[in-house]
Amino acid sequence: MQFNTYPFLFVFLPLTLTLFWADRGPRWRMASLVAASYAFYFYWDYLEGLKGGFTALLVGSTAVNYFAGKAMVRLLPDQHRKRKLLLIGPIALNLTVLAVCKYAVFAWGIAGDLLGAVGGGMLPQLEIILPIGISFYTFEAISYIVDVYYQATKPAPSFLEYACFISMFPREISGPIVRYSDLEEQFVEKRAGGWRKPDWRQINVGLMLLTMGMAKKVLVADRIAEVINPIWNGMSSGGVASAPCAWAAVLGYTFQLYFDFSGYSDMAVGLGHFFGMRLPQNFNSPYKATDARDFWRRWHMTLSAWLRDYLYIPLGGNRTGHRARNVMITMLLGGLWHGAAWQFVMWGGWHGLLLIAYRILRDRRWMPSDENPVARFFNRQMMFFWVIIGWVLFRSPNLQTAAGVFRMLAGIGPDGQPLSIRLPGWYFPAVVACWLWCNVAPNSFEVAYRAKHRAVYAVLAGVVLAVCVFYFGSKTDFLYFQF
Amino acid sequence: MKASSQRFARLFFLSFAFVWLGVATVHILGNPDGLFSSPIVPSHGDRSWKTRRLLALRSEGNSPQIVILGSSRLMQMSPYQIQAITGRRTFNYAVQGATPLEMLAELKFLLRSDIKPELLIIGLDDRAMLGMYNHWLGRMVSDHHILRELPQSLQIRLWGKAITQIRFSSTPRALRNLFVKPGLPPVSPRKAQAFLCDNGYRVRSNLSWSRQVRPGEFDRRRSQFAQPNALMAVNLPGQVALDEYQVQSLYKLLKLARQHDIRVKLVVTPTRTATGTAVQADPAKVLIDQFLRGLRSRCRKLGVEYYDLRLIESFAGDVREFWDGVHPTPANHARIVNCLFGLQPDTRHRKVPSEVSLIRRPPLVNSLNTW
Questions:
Q1: Which DSSP symbol is given to B328?
Q2: What is the pLDDT of residue A476?
Q3: Which residues of chain A make contact with B2, given a CB cutoff of 8 A?
Q4: Strand ranges (DSSP E) for B20-164?
Q5: Which pLDDT tens digit goes with each residue over B62-117?
Q6: A472 to chain B: which residues are within 8 Å by CB?
Q7: CA A290: distance to chain centroid?
Q8: Helix, strand or coil, per DSSP, at residue A396
Q9: How far is residue B92's CA from residue B87's CA, in Å, rounded to a whole number?
Q10: For residue A210, what is the nearest residue in chain B, using CA coordinates?
Q11: Among this protein's residues, is A80 annotated catalytic?
Q12: β-strand pairing of B90-92 with B66-69
């Protein structure tokens, strides 16, 4: 069930809110949120998954990690080995499940290619349904068990609370990637009576975020997608687009991806507010970044923080003299997290190179300082350009298509059937408007949290959300659902 | 702070509700996309047009004595030919995507409106029985005469579905329609894709006309559906089940007709031979065969005449006379009708106009010039 659907907005959400805010205590609130979250997950599982199998997987993963955390804390200080087992065991289990569900087909394909290369024949086709949200909740579970191990957080006092953390439906499917420590204090506050009555100020922030997120997704991202999807489909099927058309498709995807994913994140955070929960920000105007490090502090912030804290730093970070290696490993794996395909690995590697290169440029002062506004503008646009290059890899279904698109962008298109696609008159002004929005306008968080909640904004937001609802009929899936 | 915070939320919900309800109401009344049964701007789709036509015939005292029910596969079964054979006024009430559920509602409407036919010719599609037409059910919202014959819970569900199809971009047109009823776009019969005659017969004008002037194009189109791999588009998927609701609706339809002493000819509609052959090998065929065996014996008990015309040989059809994998051309429909009335398949009848003559000289009342 996606947020931009009638069943969600008109049935599931009102019902869940009514049950949640019924005149009961904090345990009721937590239990109803968990029940709603499992129902939310089961809805997808029943229609497109394993008719409950993947929900059982989620519950199972929740139980394993919760009880491991509980057991860890009960051990004596000198029982290091057991503690380590309770750390490694669940992590290994989490990663194994993720690997099987997400990467088995990829690995099988590589094995098949290798076998074919040595004349060993063909392997049968392998098909595995990817459980929705598994990439996200696996990382959250790993962060929990690691934090408990290093005593960065106390384990959840009850299974209910841990289940609430892992399965909370606003971010169950596509993040933000939340750590237990992000919510621990909030749970304590709620248990102490913070959930007695709705906090209307928080709800208003939620309404603003939900509306802005919905508008970004439905009115911007999906409209761009309608125009560029035929071009990408054509290029992926061997068609050759002219350079302007290819650039239109690539630029369009740059904005489509941002508005789609950040729109989803805005809605997720907004929905969290309806239940009194403050979820972390996931995007902070990433196309205003002036270098690669700045970009990764603004794009999918919760993922990049997770990679930094649970992968880059344990590898040694920048302390062991292997900074470039550690950056590269982190980014390659970060790319692989997005999808089981070489183009995602290449995309991660590309950003790894950017991080390394920009670090050198900054350290040696070979690039202008951001203090100068002209230089800052130049740095921003350069970074934007490199990011666009990376999105070509991200969007292409395979490396051959990506190579072809790069050639089309350079005006030296490969051989193939020329695509004749006419772009609508509004498209280029819309792309310019998107660029301005990303470079000049405040982002949704800045608006929702800092703007005064005036009556005119309430009316405007209500009108915008109502208009968005009428575009539900022509929706596309959230792009990050596939991860 | 709390009062103003609640005020913000209240204003938000009020403006949301006002705009949403307002736009929905404008669309329901202005009906720019023909989704609804608006008193101001009726839908111009085949369903509502044919229903309005039937009511007009009834008020003229010309209620049909033979009615054809079915999906698009029967929309070109010629009432002219049936009338020439039987001498009875005939109306083709087949509509796109019709399922037994919809046909039952149509019969109830006919009976309620005192349009009781002597004979019903019902076309049964295998796909309808597998629930593959259920996405067409929402179209019934455009015809309140039929919609009200459905169970209330289904009416509400279909209404909900129709509302989700509202396109915001059509709102200006919807608003305009509230004040100025739109005229029918001026389209000549030759240029139209299709149009309906006063007796409900559907003329596929663009296909028939292009066949007349560019026969090679028709042959090329037809040849696409002769290749085995093209059949996948019309082949029945392997993992399907009978839609029990449709099955029960069909039984109720037959029973209701017989209870009112209406003769029924039930026709299982044909497909191209090659499609039929491919379907023979499909696992779904086992389901259909089993179902039809039961249906045949039920028809016998009810006194319904049952015709299994899935294979072309059963009505001496011409494999070339299909527009695609499942829609017979008028030539094959003529053979089917002859078969239903016990005549030689290639019997010709006078006073049965051809498609081209209907395109050249359409009836006075047709869907191109009448709402």
A1: B
A2: 61
A3: 200
A4: 66-69, 90-92, 119-124
A5: 999 999 999 999 999 999 999 999 999 999 999 999 999 999 999 999 999 999 99
A6: 164
A7: 22
A8: coil
A9: 15
A10: B12
A11: no
A12: parallel
How far apart CA A141 and CA A156 sit, in angstroms, is 12
d(CA A203, CA A210): 10
**Cα angle A137, A303, A390; round to 5:** 125
Q: Provide the residue type at A414 as one letter.
A: P
Tokens 């037994």 belong to B100
Tell me the whole-structure pTM to 2 decimals: 0.86
User: What are B28's two structure tokens?
Assistant: 């329901």
Closest residue to A204, CB basis, from B8, B15, B171: B8
DSSP state of A25: -
**Helix (H) and strand (E) counts in chain A:** 23, 0
The pair phi, psi for residue A193, each rounded to 5°, is: 120, 5
In A, what residues contact B, Cβ < 8 A?
6, 200-201, 203-204, 207, 453-455, 457-463, 465-467, 469-474
- Among A200, A463, A469, select the one facing B6 at the smallest CB separation: A200
Residue B109: how many CB atoms within 10 A of its CB? Answer: 20
Interface A-B: count of C-beta contacts within 8 A: 75
Beta strand B202-203 pairing with B305-308: unpaired
Q: Find, among A394, A337, A348, the residue nearest to A134 by Cα.
A: A337
Q: In this complex, do B5 and A6 lie within 8 Å of one another by their Cβ atoms? A: no
Instruction: Give me A217's structure tokens.
Output: 């997704």
B164 contact residues in A (CB cutoff 8 A): 6, 472-473
Q: Are A13 and A142 in contact (CB under 8 A)?
A: no
Q: Are A224 and A442 in contact (CB under 8 A)?
A: no
CB contact (8 A) between residue B15 and residue A462: yes
Q: Quick check: B246 and B129 in contact, CB under 8 A? A: yes
Could you tell me the pLDDT band of residue A391, with boundaries at 50, 70 and 90?
A: very high
Joined tokens for residue A184:
């621990």
Nearest by Cα to B235 from B94, B132, B123, B332: B132
CB contact under 8 A, A207 and B167: no
Beta bridge partners of B67: B91, B120
> Can you read off the two tokens belonging to residue B345?
């398949």
Contact by Cβ (8 Å): B337, B168: no
Question: 3-class DSSP state for residue B93?
Answer: coil
Catalytic residue among A80, A273, A322, A338: A338
Q: Which of B351, B361, B364 is nearest to B60 (CA)?
A: B364
Q: At a CB cut-off of 8 Å and minimum separation 6, what does A168 contact? A: A33, A37, A178, A272, A275, A277
Beta carbons of B166 and A453 less than 8 Å apart: no
Contact predicate A69/A145, CB 8 Å? yes
Tens digit of each residue's pLDDT (9 = 90 or more) over A265-285: 999 999 999 999 999 999 999
Phi and psi at A59, nearest 5°, equal -65, -40
Predicted pLDDT at B234? 46
